[in-house]
Design brief:
The protein has 226 residues and is of the alpha/beta class. The protein has 2 domains: 147 residues, Rossmann fold (3-Layer(aba) Sandwich); 54 residues, no CATH class. Helix content is 42%, strand content 19%. The chain contains 7 helices and 8 strands; from the N terminus they run αβαββββααβαβαβα. The strands form 2 sheets. Strands 2-1-6-7-8 form a 5-stranded parallel beta sheet, sandwiched between helices. A 3-stranded antiparallel beta sheet has the order 3-4-5. Helix 4 packs across helix 7 and helix 5 packs parallel to helix 6. The radius of gyration is 17 Å and the shape is globular.
């Protein structure tokens, strides 16, 4: 049984990694974390599985006059999810949606270049892909990440998080081939309430964690490079 709150993302990642290690995943497994908060969790999962770590960058589409309220999300390529019910309720125009997509697409591309340091995105075809974040509130960002990854033809896609709302977990169970969430509290407002330390993760920390993991797993990743 998982006791909440987690002390921080590192502890959550270690607990998640321990559970995933019991599943005896194949050697071609790759961990993809959602930046920025998912990367410290993914780092510990990758360490537990002796698997390579990379990122799948997803950007929330905020309502123009209330940016913290997500009306959807985008990932690489043309992957996009919109909350059509919310868009209709708030009368968000197609022009406003397109403007938000353009702005977030630019930031998504900036982050991908920054985090990978010019390296190509990993080839996911035929591999087991483990999608990791620090938690699921609405599930919209993980949903678009999952659909983006699915389009890249992995053999299997697993979504794993330390904590999530019951609604978001049900949503992702339908999207993934396998799903793991350590805790689904009955009253769920935000991911951060289930961590004692939920400080913001910086771009520099993301780069450092990815570099550390790359150095440790270069020999594991080499056979799967194009």
């Amino acid at each position: 049984m998982t006791h909440l709150p987690f002390s921080d993302r590192v502890e959550a990642g270690r607990l998640l990694g321990a559970e995933l290690a019991k599943r005896k995943l194949p050697t071609n497994t790759i961990v993809l974390a959602l930046p920025r908060g998912g990367v410290p969790v993914g780092r510990e999962v990758a360490r537990a599985l002796h698997a390579p770590l990379d990122v799948v960058v997803v950007r929330k589409l905020g309502v123009p006059w209330q940016p913290e309220l997500a009306m959807g999300a985008i990932a690489g390529g043309s992957a996009q999810v919109l909350n059509q019910e919310l868009v209709a309720k708030l009368h968000v125009s197609r022009q406003e949606i397109n403007a938000a997509v353009a702005e977030e697409r630019a930031e998504l591309e900036r982050r991908e270049k920054l985090y990978r340091g010019g390296r190509p995105a990993p080839d996911l075809r035929g591999r087991v892909v483990l999608l990791v974040d620090d938690g699921l509130a609405t599930g919209s960002t993980m949903l678009v990440a999952a659909r983006y990854v699915r389009a890249l033809k992995p053999a299997k896609m697993i979504v794993a998080v330390p904590v999530g709302s019951a609604e978001a977990c049900e949503l992702l169970k339908q999207e993934a081939d396998d799903f793991l969430c350590l805790a689904t509290p009955e009253y769920f407002m935000a991911v951060g309430e289930w961590f004692r330390d939920f400080r913001q993760v910086s771009d520099a920390e993301v780069q450092q964690l990815l570099d550390e993991c790359r150095h440790e797993t270069e020999d594991l990743e080499a056979p799967h490079r194009r």
